[in-house]
Amino acid sequence: MDDDKIELLPPGTAPAWGYTPAPRRGPKPGYSLEQIVDAAIAQADAEGYAALSMPSIAKRLGITANALYRYLSSKEELLVLVAESAWGPPPESSDDDWRGSVTAWARALLERCRRHPWLIDLPVRNAPTTPNLLGWLENFLEAMADTGLSTRDVMGCVVLVDGWVRSTAALVRDVNASAPDRTLALTEFLAPRLRERGYPRVAAVISGEAYGEDGIDDGDVEFGLGRILDGIEALIVSR
């Protein structure tokens, strides 16, 4: 494929697949693209998604922001490459059952979100086009291959499970970031007022052990995933 057509690809696609344009004239680059992506991930791990700016990454590397554009065409390209590296390759599933395979797939995605919480904040502008992310899709398609569902149905299941993982990971991150003392104080403040206002059931829930004090635990997460898989199983049976 010639360079003119390469430029039509979504940002980050070509370099993620190992394509390198013809070298430019001038000094030899002091960094590899992989080193820049690693620096960006370290920056986000330390300070969150908001810190993924060209100036902050350049500062970490000891170069100017303008110098980064010798390696990258845009910040959008950087974000695609950062996502590709941070999500990493999908897990190998040894489970012959679709439900076990999809469960392992979802848990692995959640584990990546725990490792790099800022991944949830990365914008998703189009379908995946890079090797690792397409590998995750391939694993899901393989898990569902013998279910009898149509391609459209399976792709709908991918969107459903992936969306659940991202929203759940964001909820777990944000809720569990609350200080326990603050949560306890809020419960003590709200409980009597809720009873006075006629919300006895809500008051009973927030006063119980299942609400608030320990944030969202693995049991809460597994419950949601289990219900989604029940729905997919019902769809398989109906087909």
Question: Secondary-structure map with pairings?
Answer:
Elements: H1 3-6, H2 13-16, H3 33-47, H4 54-61, H5 65-68, H6 75-87, H7 98-115, H8 131-143, H9 151-176, H10 180-196, H11 200-207, H12 218-238
Helix pairs in contact: 3-4, 3-6, 7-8, 7-9, 7-12, 9-12, 10-11
Number of helices: 12
CATH superfamily of the largest domain: Tetracycline Repressor, domain 2
* Range of helix content: 55-70%
Q: Are there runs of 5+ residues with pLDDT below 50, and where?
A: none
Reported CATH architecture of the largest domain: Orthogonal Bundle
Radius of gyration: 22 Å
State the separation between the terminal residues, measured CA to CA: 42 Å
| The level-1 CATH class of the largest domain | Mainly Alpha
Number of domains: 2
Structure, described:
The chain is mostly helical and 239 residues long. It contains twelve helices and no strands. It starts with a helix and ends with a helix.
Short description:
This protein has twelve helices and no strands. With 239 residues, it is mostly helical.
From the structure above, extract its key features.
0% strand; mainly alpha; 2 domains; 239 residues; Arc Repressor Mutant, subunit A; flat; single chain; Tetracycline Repressor, domain 2
